[in-house]
Amino acid sequence: MRHAVTLIVGLLVGIILSITAMRVLDSRKDAYPEALMNVIKHELIAANKAATQPACNDNANALDKLTLLSNDIITAMPDEGTPDRVFHQYIDNLHGKVLAASQSDCTQRKQALTEVKHACDDCHRDYR
Ligand code: HEC
To answer: Fewer CB within 10 Å: C terminus or N terminus of the chain?
Structure first.
């Protein structure tokens, strides 16, 4: 009985220490890349909502913000050592699609935003 209690207490202490260690390691991780991606996601949702409005009015400027945010991807996730051409290509591609969406007329807006989403997925397939 005493051994069982010791074992259980030992296990519990072990679990608590592991959780603490994981938290400490996690807090050292740079929050910028994930934070940027979450804001980008938020703006893409806003742009899609605006596209469903009459005259597809984008009065929250979601597409302008997406243009600026896509410029920040390389700042948030810099190349380590030699520049990664494929990664840069995906960023350029996203940039182009966002620009095309912001210049599209209302009837084309939803389709243009779908292409933006595909540009996100392309990079995620290789790098996420
Ligand atoms: C050039 C590459 C690239 C492009 C383009 C890109 N992403 Fe990402 N995304 C990443 C990488 C890399 C991660 C993983 C980041 C990490 O976990 O640190 C990621 C992660 C994410 C995440 C998860 C963040 C989290 O909390 O873990 C979301 C949401 C996301 N991206 C949304 C988007 C959306 C929406 C777009 C398009 C508008 C987009 N991304 C375009 C590279 C990209």
So the answer is: N
Cβ(32) – ligand 1 distance below 6 Å: no
Nearest to 95, CA basis, from 40, 55, 31:
40
Residues 24 and 83 in one domain: no
pLDDT tens digit at each of 128 positions of the chain? 778 888 888 888 888 788 777 777 777 788 999 999 999 999 999 999 999 988 888 877 999 999 999 999 999 999 888 889 999 999 999 999 999 999 999 999 999 999 999 999 999 999 99
> Which pTM does this prediction carry?
0.83
In sequence order, which residues have a C-beta less than 8 Å from that of residue 43 and are 6 or more positions away?
62, 63, 65, 66, 69
74 CB within 6 A, ligand 1 = no
92 lies in which domain range?
Answer: 32-127
Query: What's the 25 CA to ligand 1 centre distance in angstroms?
Result: 22
